[in-house]
Amino acid sequence: MQLTGKVAIVTGAARGLGRAYAEALAREGAAVVAGDVRDCTATVKSIRDAGGRALGAELDVASFDSCKEIAAAAVKEFGRLDALVNNAALYANLKGGRFDQLDEAQWDRVMQVNVKGVWNGCRAVVPLMRAQKSGSVINIASLAAVYGLPYALDYSVSKGAVIAMTRSLARELGRDWIRVNAVAPSAVMTEGTKEFFGEKLEKAAQVIAAGQSLQRNLDTGDLTGTIVYLVSDASLFVTGQTLMVDGGTVFS
Would the pLDDT of 3 be above 70? Predict the structure, then answer.
């Protein structure tokens, strides 16, 4: 198991991609702290039932204090912190529309969670990683930021900011041997994606797959290998990158 001895925090880990990331890291030997505003009991139980180590924690990434608490809990429970997967984001319940008709309160909330939440997570874990002179931060971006997603400008802009933050932090934190990378998936067939597209899901899924070189919609298993790689020592000299996991939709 390539992650034996490592400890990782996964945000937004109660369901969907976050849960899949947490379970995959645990299968490879990492101790996982699963954080979410939702209850992470099912995620933790799944990991422990499979023989892994996990801790669940209530987490609101929009709150720096909440992020500091989960970082402290990881160190208290497992003794160190090697990785942060910044997965938590507003997506499923967003109301789309033309850019000039988007709800302003929704816009502000998206930026608070999807952008400030990533910043808060980094602020909370970097001092711990800096003391170790090692660490991997993985920020979950989106194809939307690179390809352009119409009628969802708030979400697309927030994920573009995640990529910019990733690049800037990679340059700033390299001297501390902390790696910062982003993963940008296409639409993955999770509960959140189904809620986002609603009755338009089937048509949207067909259009998305048709635009890919590999013409199949992504599921959670298509992302977990990339996350494991970025947490592992196999990626020790990879930083500042945005890895597109999109079936070959855009080429960077």
Answer: yes
